[in-house]
């Protein structure tokens, strides 16, 4: 697990919700170039974190729409997660052979408040991924991982999901080697368990 993505139509609303629930203060993030969003962060350790991402009102809506369904999102919630790989091209090719199409690789970037530009390669975050239960995949390359400069405010424990087609989604997760429990549910729902200053919290 590289990071969790908690999305909110309004970033400050999402930050207030998460800070109150977890009992932490979020760290500054930055703006996602070309995606029309900005974020704040919570560190889990040197190689994992969570971002709260929201619509950047100072940037026009991208032609493809904002990622994570932000243009139609009705309320703040955990929308997806991200897993790290060392060889993104090879991983996507193997997934496609196994019957899981994660789209074509693309480049993302974010400028931190201190001016540092972070860049990465990732699978297409708009690709169909069982409503966000399947993560998108990221290759950081030479960019330092964001977790290295974040205070470890919480500890990630596990992630689980509910999905109307749980058996099929579970098979996909097993094919991709993902550590996530998938159980039947009427709607798609992601639940991450975190050890926080407020105790164990299920974030969904």
What would your notes on this structure say?
This protein is of the alpha+beta class. It has a single domain, classed as 2,3-Dihydroxybiphenyl 1,2-Dioxygenase, domain 1. It is built from three helices and twelve strands. The strands form two sheets. It has an eight-stranded mixed barrel. Strands 10-9-11-12 form a four-stranded mixed beta sheet. A hairpin with a 4-residue loop joins strand 6 and strand 7. The longest helix is centred in the first third of the chain and has 12 residues. The protein is globular and about 40 Å long. The two termini are 16 Å apart. The mean pLDDT is 93.
SS-derived structural category: alpha+beta
For the secondary structure, the number of strands is: 12
The string of secondary-structure elements, in order, is: EHEEEEHEEEEHEEE
Largest beta sheet, briefly? 8 strands, mixed, barrel
CATH hierarchy, class: Alpha Beta
CATH superfamily: 2,3-Dihydroxybiphenyl 1,2-Dioxygenase, domain 1
CATH architecture: Roll
Which parts are unreliable, with pLDDT below 50 for 5 consecutive residues or more? none
Rg (C-alpha, Å)? 16 Å
Overall geometric form: globular
Q: Could you report the average pLDDT, rounded to the nearest whole number?
A: 93
Q: Please state how the strands of the largest beta sheet are arranged side by side.
A: 1-4-3-2-6-7-8-5
Secondary structure tally, helices = 3
Which percent range describes the beta-strand content? 35-45%
Helix content: 10-25%
């Amino acid at each position: 697990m590289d990071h969790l993505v908690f999305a909110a139509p309004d970033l400050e609303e999402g930050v207030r919700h998460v800070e109150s629930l977890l009992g932490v203060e979020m760290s500054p993030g930055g703006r996602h170039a070309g995606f029309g969003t900005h974020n704040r962060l919570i560190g889990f350790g040197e190689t994992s974190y969570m971002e709260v991402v929201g619509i950047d009102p100072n940037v026009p809506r991208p032609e493809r729409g904002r990622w994570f369904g932000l243009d139609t999102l009705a309320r703040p919630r955990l929308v997806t997660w991200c897993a790290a790989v060392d060889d993104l091209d090879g991983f996507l090719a193997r997934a496609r052979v196994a019957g899981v199409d994660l789209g074509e690789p693309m480049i993302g970037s974010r400028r931190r408040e201190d001016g540092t530009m972070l860049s990465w390669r990732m699978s297409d975050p708009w690709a169909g991924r069982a409503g966000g239960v399947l993560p998108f995949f990221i290759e950081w390359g030479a960019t330092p991982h964001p977790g290295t400069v974040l205070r470890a405010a919480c500890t990630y424990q596990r992630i689980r999901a509910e999905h109307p087609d749980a058996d099929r989604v579970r098979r996909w997760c097993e094919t991709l080697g993902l550590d996530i429990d998938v159980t039947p549910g009427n709607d798609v729902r992601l639940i991450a368990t975190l050890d926080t200053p407020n105790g164990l919290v299920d974030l969904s």
